## 1
Amino acid sequence: MKKILAILMALACLFAFAACTNDDVQDETDAATDAATDAATDAATDAATEEATEEATEEATEATVEDPSVKSEGVMTYAEYAAAELDTEVTIEAYVQAKQGWWEKEGQGVATIYTQDADGAYFLYEMPISEEDYNKLVDGAKIRVKGYKAEWMGEVEIIDATYEILEGNYVAEALDVTAKLGTDELIANQNMFVAFKGMTVVASTDANGNEAAFLYGWDGSGSQGSDLYFNVSIGDQVYNFTVESYLCGADTDVYKAVEALTIGDVIDMEGFLYWYDGVNPHITSVTAAAAE
Amino acid sequence: MKKRIISLFFCIIVLLPALAGCHGAREQNSFVIPDEFDTSRNYEITFWAKNDTNMAQVETYEKAMEEFHALYPNITVTMRPFTDYGKLYNEVITNISTQTTPNVCITYPDHIATYLTGENTVVPLDDLMADKAYGLGGSEVKFDAPTVEEIIPQFLAEGIIGGQQYALPYMRSTEACYINKTYVEKLGYTVPDVLTWDFIWEVSAAAAEKAEDGTYLVNGQKVMIPFIYKSTDNMMIQMLRQKNAGYSTDAGEILIFNDTTEEILLDVADAVSKGAFSTFKISSYPANFLNAGQCVFAIDSTAGATWMGSGAPLMDISEEAVVEFETVVRMIPQYDPDNPVMISQGPSVCIFNKEDPQEILASWLFVQYLLTDDIQISYAQTEGYVPVTSKALENPVYQDYLSRKGEEHPKKFYYETKIEATELLLDNIENTFVTPVFNGSTSLRNAAGQLIEDVTKSVRRKKTIDDAYFETLYADTTSLYRLDQHSESSAEQADLGPLPTTAVVLLSSLAGAWVLIILYVCIQKINAKKLSGIS
C-alpha cells in the first residue's frame, strides 16, 4: 500500500511539474503559432494586396482612354466645385494622382488622397476607407467622392467624404507653374500635379539661427523621417517647399534627394500644389535643373 | 511514526517547489529590483520624447542625455522625437505587439491605461520610487534627484492607475485664454480678471458683426473668427466639470450623454450660427488667427504661449500678416468665477518592461534625471510649463526667471505672455483636476471633443440642431468610439473564459497530490489506532 501511495504521489508531483513546464511550452507554442499565423496572414495579405494592385493596374492600363472632363449625372464639374461655397456638400469624380499612407483613426481606416481631373484638383482629407480599397486606388484610378468642401489655412479640401471606385484611368502630366509663382493666378491650380523649373536652393534657418539647405521639421526640431522643409528661389522671391513624410517617406528618392541638396543648387521639381498660409507644395521629385 | 512524519515533511518539501514554480511561471515577466546596478555592462536606452515643435525642448532632452551619460558612461540614451502625442501613442501601440517598445516614453496617463491591457507592459514605479539605494533621492543615485515628497502631490497622483504608480509627471500645463485686449476694448468691453462663459459668448457675437462691404467691423478684414478653441475635448471636459455634470465615473462608467452636455452644445451651436466660434480642427491654429488680428479669444495650452501675441517668439504666419495688438492672458472662462476649475495636463514619463532588470534600472535612473532641477527648469522655460517638483519651483534660478517677466532678451526668453501663462498655473494648482483614467478613457476624451466638432460642423452646414439631431449624434458617437464596449475599470478583473487544458491538468495534479497526502496520513492514523488497540 505504501509503495502504491508513494508511486501515486510521485506521479502527481511529476504531473504538476510537467504541467508547469508545459505551461511555458504552451505559451511558447502559442506565441510561435501566433507568429506563424501572423506571418501567414501577412504573407497572404501581402500576396492579396499585390495581386489586387497588379489587377487594378492592369485594369487601369487596359481601360479605354476616356475624357477626364466628362462627369456622370449629378456630379459637379470642376468649375462648379470651385464655385461652391465652403461647408456645402459636393460630389465630384476624379482620378487618384497620389496618396498619403493609410492609417487607423479611432479604429476607422482613413487616407488623404490627391486627385485630379482634366480641369482641376481635389484634395481628399482623411477620407474613411478600408485598407483593401485603399490598395486598389493606384495612380490613375477613378473615384467618385461625396463630401463637404472645407478650407484649412488656405488649403481647400473635401472632408467627411464617402467614395465609390469607378472604372476609368487618367494620370495628369505635371503642369509647369514656375511662371505663376508670386501671382494671383497660381491658386487656381491649387492641389494640381505641377512642375517648377530652374529654381535655386537658398538657405533655411533653424531655430538657433543655423543655416542649412533643408530642415527636418519646419524649425529643425525634427529628425530623419520628419517632414523636410527647404527654401527655393526664383528671381528675388523665396518659397518654402515641403517633402511631406506621409506622402514621400525617408526611403523615397525625393526624400534622399532633398537631404543631399546644397545651397546654390539649381533644381527642377514636381509635386502637388498644397497650400498652408500661402503656397507650400508637397514635392515628389527633385532633379538637377536641365541645362538650358 | 517519526519516519512517517519525516516522509510527509519531505513530500510537502517536494511539492512546494512545484507550487512555487507554477507561481513563477505566471509572474515571470514582472520586474524585480536588482540589489545592485551592474556598472560593468553597457546599456542602450531608447527614449521616445514629445516636443511642441520647439527646438529648445529638443535641446533640453539632448542636454539631459549627455549629462546623464557623463554620470553613467555605461548608459547611452538615444531619443526619437515626436511632435504629436497621438502619433507617439499609435507607435507605442504598434510596438507593444512586436515587443519593441522604447525603454522610456513621454506619455499621458490615459494612454498608459491602454498600454496596460498588455500583461506587464509598463513597469509599476512604486517599489522603484521607494528603493533606498536607487529610489527617488536614493543613496546610490549619482545625482541630486528629488525625493518623493518633493514632487507636487497633485501632479504625482495623476500617474496612479488602478492603485499603482505607473507614470511620473515630467511637466505640467493647463489651458489659458489668450486675448486681443485691443479688440475687446474697441468693442466697448473691459477684460475681467476672471472670464465667464456669458462674457465670452457675448463679446464674440459682437466681434462677428460685419460692415455693409462684408468686412468685419472690429478688424476691417474679410476674416474674423472671434473665439477659437484648440482642444475641444478639453473644452467639453472642463465645461462639464465646472457645471458638476457627468463625464465618467472613476471606474469608467460613461456619463457624458446628459442634459448639461446638450445645453453646452446648444450654446456652441448658437455661437457658431452667429459666426462667433470655431475650432482648430475646422479652421486652424488659434495663434495664427490671433496674431493676424482675426481672432479675439484664443484658447490653447499654456504650453503654446510662445506662439501667442503679435510679439510672440514663435510665429507660423508671414510677418506681413501680423497685426499689432495688446495680448492679455486669463484662465479659461468659468461658470462660477468664485470657484474656478481648470484641467491639469502635460507630459508624464513611463518605463516599459524588459527582460533584463538591469536595463529597467538604467531606464529608471534616466527618468529620475529628467526630474532634476536643471532639466526641469530648462524645459519649463521653453514654454508656459511648470516644473513638477517643489525643489525646482523654489530654486533661485527659476524664481529669478519668473521675476524677469517681460525683460528684453534677444531670443525673447522672458516673453511676458509665456511667463504669465506659467504664473496662471502656479497660482491655480489647487484648482486643477484630471479626468479618471481607465481602459477606454482616451476614447471618451476624443468623443467629448468630437461632440463639439460635429455640432460646429453641422451648424456651418445648415443642419437643424434638435432632439432628433442629438439622438443621432449620441448614437453615432457611442458607436464610433465604442463607448459601449470597454470594460468599466482597468483594475477590474475581466472574465477570462474557461481555464486552458494545461492549467486544468496542473490544478488537478496538485489537488490529487494533496488528496493522496491526506489519504496517506488518515490511513497511517487508522493503522496506528488499530495497532494500539491490538496491543
## 2
Amino acid sequence: MSNWIELVIFAVLLAAFAVINLYRLCKGPTPGDRMTAGDSMDILITCAMVLFAMYTGRTILLDISIISAMLGIIDTMLVGRYLDNGRWRKK
Amino acid sequence: MILRIVIDVLIGLGAIFALAGTIGVQCMPDLYSRMQASTCITTLGVMGVALGGILYEAILMGNAAAAVKIGVILLLVITINPVGAHAIMKGSYRGGFRPDKPMETDDFREDFNE
Amino acid sequence: MPKTKFSAVCSTFVICMAFWLALTWTLDPQELIAGVIVSIVAALFSARFFIHEKAFWFFNPVKALSMVAYVFVFLWELIKANVDMAKRCFGGCKNINPGIVKVPVDVDGLYPEAMLANSITLTPGTITLDIAEEDGQNYFYIHWIDVSETDRVKAGEIIKGRMERWIRRIWSK
C-alpha cells in the first residue's frame, strides 16, 4: 500500500470508460458493434486492474489481468469466425 | 519526484487516448469506423499505462517480477489483438452487415457479385 | 499439414521456456524442471502449427538489428496515426470518409505478410480485411477511415510506405 492516490483515480477513470462502452454493448445494432465494445471493455478493465495492482502491491492481480487479456481476445476471434459463414447475408 | 511526474504523465496520456477511443466507439456512424476508433484504446492506451507501470515497479519498487509481468501483458495485447480485429471486420463484411451510408470506394464488394 | 521438423520443435521449446521464466521469475530447480517438462510437451504438440520455414534465421545479426530498428519506426508511425485519430474523435466524429481500397503489396511469404497485415491493423485508421492473390501479385483489402487517394499504388504508398520497406529488409532471403 503506497501513498500514490492518483493511481486509484486513473483506475476509476478507466473503469468509468468501460461503463460508457457498456452502453454501446447494450444498444449496438449489429453483433460486430457489441463485440467491439466488449473487447474495449475487456482491455480497459485489464488496464484498471494493472493500476490497482500497482497501488496495493498485490501481484496476484497481474496474473488475473494476463488471463483476462488472453480470454478476451480469444472470444473476439470466436465471434468473428462465427459471423463468417454466409448464412447471415441479407438477400 | 521527477519520476513520479513522468509516470503520471505516461498514465495520463494513456487515459486520454482511452477516452478518445471510447468517444469514438460511441459517436462514429457505422460499424467499421467504430472498429477503427477502438484501436486507439488497444495501442497507445495500453502502452501508456504499461510503460508507466514498468517504470514504477522496476525503479521505485525494485520488484522485477511484476515489471516483467506487465511487459508480458503489453506484448500479449499488442501482438494478438489485431487478429481479433481482422476476424470481426471480415466476418461482419462477409456476413452481410453493410453501413447505411455507402462507402467512398469499395473494392471488396466486387468479389461478392453484388 | 506439414511434417514436424526437429528445428521447429527446438525453437518452439525455447519460446515456451522463455515465457515460463518470465512468468515465474525464479531459478528454483523445482520450477525449472516443471517448466522444461511442460515446454517439451507443448512444443511437441504445437510446433507444426507455428513454424514452417527455416527456424533459426534470427541468429543473423543484420536481421536482428533491423528488427530492433523496425520497432522504433513502427512506434513513430503509431504515434502519428494515434494523434490523428484522437483529433477526429474529439472533433465530433464528423470529418471522416471511410472506404475500402485494394492495395498491391510486394512482400512474399507467410511471416512477412502476417507481420505487415498486423502492423497495418495496429495503426488506428487502417484495418486489413483480407489477403488475395491474383496472377502472382498479392493484394490487401484495407478499410481506411479517410480515403484521400483512390489510385491503388499511391494509396498503398500513403498507407504502408516505410513499414513495407523495413519488413522487406528484415525478411529478405
